[in-house]
Amino acid sequence: MSARETAGDRPRPGGLAPAAVALAATLAVVGWLLLGAPGNLYVGYAGGPIAMAAAVVACWQVGSTAPLPRAVRSFWRQLRYAGVFLLISAVISLLRANNNTGLSPYVGLPMLAGVVILMVAMLRLPFGERTALGWLRALLDGATVAVASTLIFWYVVLDLAPPGTSLVARIAAAVVGVSGVLLLVVIGKAAAAPSAAVHPASLRVLAVAPLVDMAGTILLIAGEQRGRLTLSVLALPLVALSMAVSAHLQRREPGAPAQPVIGAAQRSIFNLLPFIAVTATAALVVSVSAQEMSTRQRTVIIGAVLIAGFVVARQLLSLHENNIALRGIRRQQAELERLALSDNLTGLLNRTGFGMALAERIDERLPATALLIDIDDFKMINDTLGPAAGDQLLYHLGQRLREHCRPGEPAARLGGDEYAVLLPTDDPVVAEAATARLLAGLGEPFRIGDQQLLLHASAGIAVAADGESADEVQRNADIAMYAAKESGKASWVRFEPRMRQDMTLHARLAGELHDAIVQGQLRLVYQPVFDLETGALHGAEALVRWRHPTRGFVSPGDFIPVAERSGLIVPLGSWVLREACEQLARWRAAFGPGAIEAINVNVAVRQLRDGGFVDEVAAVLSETGLTSRNLIIEVTESSVVDGWQVRETLQALHEMGVRLALDDFGTGQSSLSLLRAFPVDVLKLDKSFVDGIAEGADRGRLAVAAAVAQLAEYLQLKAVAEGIENAEQLERLREMGYRYGQGFFMAKPLPAEECGKLMSAPPVQVGVSSA
Ligand code: C2E
Ligand code: MG
Ligand code: MG
């Protein structure tokens, strides 16, 4: 469905009434002629003024219609003036109905004025080539046609005029006739302009006017009595009818077409006009020379005409060759345009194509919604299947999307695993229904080779609001899509303006975080991990803190996600790793065997994906004088399912002897299978399971907490309970078999110095007394 097919803000069709009046008047004249012109001649001539008055009204209506470009409106205003002169001519014809022999100057002169104004109006339309060369070419074409048609009029048409015809009438007739031919050339030029402003159908209908003008002049001056009568009563109504219909068409289709309004075939006919003129003149010269010259003179003339003929033929040949070359270039250009706008893997639109389609709807003030779809965890699938199968999957995804799109909902692949659909609506409910339909379509299993794959996707929906550009709408959809991903994937989120504020805040935070790393605003605190049986200090987890110069303390819960998204987590994480290891080295130097053996450092998935992480760890350990036994790396469950690169990094760290802890254990999706696939040493039971434990209200959580302890025992892993806040929790966890724990109840995250004090002090009796 093209944009124009959608009902919307197209102006109401109008201007039909004047066209109907002009048609009625013309038909009445035709009827009158068919009946053998009964009664008074005034009856026949009355059609002209009526039809022409209607045409003037029609042009006036278009000239004052608001949604048209200025150039087009002014064109129709000039046509209205032309119509007024033709109307004068029609009224004079009516008044002189009874002594109408040949063309009278009173009728001819206003008619000529009308034709000239028409021609000027056409010439003022935007031509393709307003260069000096373009004008010169147009002038030469015009001059050729004018000279040829003048000669033909003078020799042929005026020769046939009745002997009594006055010189003024002859000249007027010749000028009006020649103007008709020239007008045809000008209409052709206007219609062939690459950015034709006036509607194509309108221009085509207007071409009736010069044709009638030429035929009319010829018949008026040289025709039979009956033919002359026919045209003298019918010519002006026909011209008026063409103007009124043309105006009506323009009002119905106010949009200017992007393509030239006439096709290549018609264009070449217009290009041929000068050659036709030359040929006609040559024929005239030969025939005149046959009547009025001696054989010698005639031979020279015929030779000259032949040479002119050869030159013309030669020119036609090059014109033909040019046309063929031009067609080839156009075809290539169209193909290039198509390629530039489509995605070569799926054949859907690409990012540029989608942006253009969206911009087009927005420019035309049609309702539009951008829907952005991103496949969840595609990277993992791609890593597992390999790139070839990944491409195949992307292709099938594209086809599936296309199948589930309705007509008028173009689909695009923006790159990677990101797809988009342009929805022709501004109703959020409709847009969400379409999104649900499309996501459900993508949720059906895919068959790649002998594998059956089930995918999920997240989507962002952004309805184009008033005054928003295509770029903004796309960005909004992107923001909403991120929100969908963050809210847990396999869902969609509709954009709301506050999301942009969040996004801006994040962007600003990312900028400031960058400075914070450079300017040393970051600190590490250490939360002790205790042996729950002995109450002894067992280890410590390094946690980053940001003391912002104006905002004050910013929680890692707020800036770690920002750092992850912006990639700043890589330098930040490097700093944390080095600082924590240096601190442990200092403690070990200061407290010897009293110091903790290992330090826990949180590592984000972006760091693991970075190829150099293993080398970095090795370098830091050796530079701080530590061994791999002194470091425990904490990763979250969701980060380790991130593909082969992460898996390899973790394996290499394990082989090096660095221990791995699964953080926030129990909150992820595939906890159990992970334990088999990864070299895990420590399970850290998430705080949420510890929270509900004492009240015993949540049996499910209680069961998970107990199961994790048993699992750890069975697999010989160390189980650590996180976020212990009271004695009761501690007691229950110990009963369940948790050997280690951390939490505010025992100690909050502490500055290095305070944490160090614990290493020289006797063990804190963390509730052990009650045991
Ligand atoms: P996490 O690794 O699970 O760290 C434990 C979080 O729980 C810490 O919050 C800690 O202060 C808090 N916590 C400990 N005991 C209790 C308790 O009894 N009650 C309550 N309410 N909270 C307790 P924090 O320091 O705000 O860190 C939050 C998260 O930020 C961490 O969760 C970790 O995922 C991330 N994070 C912190 N530092 C780093 C870092 O250096 N690198 C990376 N990649 N992530 C970090
Ligand atoms: Mg942690
Ligand atoms: Mg945790």
Could you characterize the architecture of this molecule?
The chain is of the alpha/beta class. It has 3 domains: 3-320; 351-495, 2-Layer Sandwich (Alpha-Beta Plaits), CATH 3.30.70; 513-760, EAL domain (TIM Barrel, Alpha-Beta Barrel). It is built from 29 helices and 16 strands. The strands form 3 sheets. An 8-stranded mixed barrel has the order 8-9-11-12-13-14-15-16, surrounded by 6 helices. α6 crosses α11 and α17 (470-486) crosses α18. The protein starts with 15 loop residues before the first helix and ends in an 11-residue tail after the last helix. The structure holds ligand C2E and magnesium ion (2 copies). Residues 527, 543-544, 555-557, 560, 573, 576, 602-604, 634, 663-664, 722-725, 742-744, 749 line the site of ligand C2E.
What is the secondary structure topology, with strand pairs?
Elements: H1 16-34, H2 41-45, H3 47-63, H4 70-95, H5 105-123, H6 132-157, H7 167-192, H8 200-206, H9 208-222, H10 225-252, H11 264-292, H12 295-341, H13 351-363, E1 369-375, H14 378-385, H15 387-404, E2 411-415, E3 418-423, H16 428-443, E4 446-448, E5 451-453, E6 457-463, H17 470-486, E7 492-494, H18 497-519, E8 522-531, E9 537-548, E10 552-554, H19 556-566, H20 569-591, E11 599-602, H21 605-609, H22 613-624, E12 631-636, H23 637-640, H24 644-656, E13 659-665, H25 671-677, E14 682-685, H26 687-691, H27 699-715, E15 718-721, H28 727-736, E16 740-741, H29 752-760
Helix pairs in contact: 1-3, 1-10, 3-4, 3-10, 4-5, 4-10, 5-7, 6-7, 6-11, 7-9, 7-11, 8-10, 9-10, 11-12, 14-15, 15-16, 17-18, 18-19, 20-22, 22-24
The site of one magnesium ion (MG) has 4 residues, from strand 13.
Domain GGDEF: 366-497
Protein name: Diguanylate cyclase (GGDEF)-like protein
GO molecular function, one term: cyclic-guanylate-specific phosphodiesterase activity
